Amino acid sequence: IYFDLLLETNPLYNNGVVPKSMEDGRLPPELDPVHYDLEIRPDIYTDGPPFINNGHVDITFHALDATNQIVLNYRALTLVEGSMTLESYNDTGPVPSILGYGVLPDVEFVVVTLSGDLEPDHFYVFGVSFVSTLGTAANRAGLYWDSYEKDGETR
Predict the structure, then answer these.
(1) How many other C-beta atoms can be found within 10 angstroms of the C-beta atom of residue 103?
(2) Cβ count within 10 A of residue 27
(3) Cβ neighbour number for residue 80 with a 10 Å cutoff
(4) Is 107 left (phi over 0), alpha (psi -120 to 50) or beta?
(5) Of 19, 21, 17, 27, residue with least CA distance to 71
(6) From CA 74, how far away is CA 103, in angstroms rounded?
(7) β-sheet bridge partners, residue 71
(8) Is the torsion defined by CA of 115, 125, 105, 26 positive or negative?
(9) How far is CA 148 from CA 24, 83, 110, 152, in A?
(10) Predicted pLDDT at 23
(11) CB half-sphere exposure, 124, CA atoms < 13 A
(12) Nearest CA to 31 among 117, 130, 129?
């Protein structure tokens, strides 16, 4: 299920105000990603486009400062409801729960709000499943599909 929440009605964003650190399009500095485990499963065996991707990403990050938000780049994805997870990487201490998330389309971010702060100098793994449409050769952005003619047949 896709949630494209409006900034001014979303309580997760400080009454609709984009944090200063996000105004320049850069991710906030509190979290440092150290590893991405990305799985993308494009389904190209349908009758034709649009082709759908199903995928999942686990992002291992180092918390440099305390924060109750995880901010990620986001473009043209549908996040699978109930698929978000947050775990400690190598520690058995408590981990904040995920309260919710919202999309900031103007700066292409998704903001995940937590029940408490992440501990500085700890490592965490955030996971989420997603669905998207495979791009076309015309836009050549990210993973895309193309076709060609051979012996009068489109392949």
Answers:
(1) 21
(2) 16
(3) 16
(4) alpha
(5) 27
(6) 8
(7) 111
(8) positive
(9) 40, 37, 36, 10
(10) 61
(11) 28
(12) 117
Model pLDDT, residue 66: 93
Average pLDDT score, the chain: 81
Q: What is the pLDDT of residues 56-94, one digit of tens each?
A: 999 999 999 999 999 998 888 889 989 999 999 987 778
Residue whose C-alpha is closest to residue 51's, from 140, 117, 136, 151 = 136
DSSP the chain: ------GGG-GGGTTTPPPGGGTTSPPPTTEEEEEEEEEEEEE--SSSSSPEEEEEEEEEEEE-S-EEEEEEE--S-EEPTT--EEEESS--S--PPEEEEEEETTTTEEEEEEEEEEPTT-EEEEEEEEEEE-EETTT--SSEE---EETTEE-
pTM of the model as a whole = 0.79
Residue 53: how many other CB atoms lie within 10 Å = 19
Tokens 């500085």 -> residue: 120
